[in-house]
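FW: tagging you since you asked about this chain on Friday. Here's the raw sequence from the shared folder, copied in full. Didn't touch anything.
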Amino acid sequence: MSRTIALIADIHANDTALEATLQEIASRGIGRGLVVGDVIMRGEQPQESVNRLIDLGWPCVVGNTDRKVLRSIGTNATPKQLAKVGSRWWTRERLDAEAIAWLEALPKTVRCEFDGHRIAVVHGSPGDSRIDLGPDAPEHELLDFARELEADCVVSAHTHAAGAHEVGDVLFVNPGSVGETGDLRDRRPRWAWLESASGRLVAHLETLDQPLARPRIKKSHV
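HL: got it, structure written out here
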């Protein structure tokens, strides 16, 4: 079994950044990975992003923007909503049946074993994908989440803020965002990887050299 595993998240329909990130991961000789949700919405390449992940075959959890698009299916949208590039309605019109079926099948949680370590992947908290599991969260809540997930390592995303910290004997990792950034001065995609070394997990946070991440659109109506 490989002793390294890649982590990518928050692609937001930016297939250009996704492709470059995956090329970098492959160049490191890492062939196994996990996808931490928010595959689509707000970017211009939803179908391409889903196709690439389908072909890749890495386990993936559903994110809050993925669910927003799925909830819009079957609803009526105004011409203005359909014309807004990156909106949930614009996005759904550009997904084929296979992409929609793949998104609908994504679980909220993925659990896997990695070199004897129990890893749990959630976009946010187990109950709410919008909740931050970063270092500012109360330690007792983080440990409760880890116990609920029966995990030695909890991987989450959503905030686009890369980081890794330990609480007790549990490692919490956020790989950052591949496709979107709120920092216009630094538009480089982020990703991370885990290494099993001497019986423990070590998280490595990485940044691509290319400014391929899109500026984040913060308007709630999309």
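FW: DSSP finds seven helices and eleven strands in the chain.
HL: agreed, and Residues 15-27 form the longest helix (13 residues).
FW: great, closing this out.
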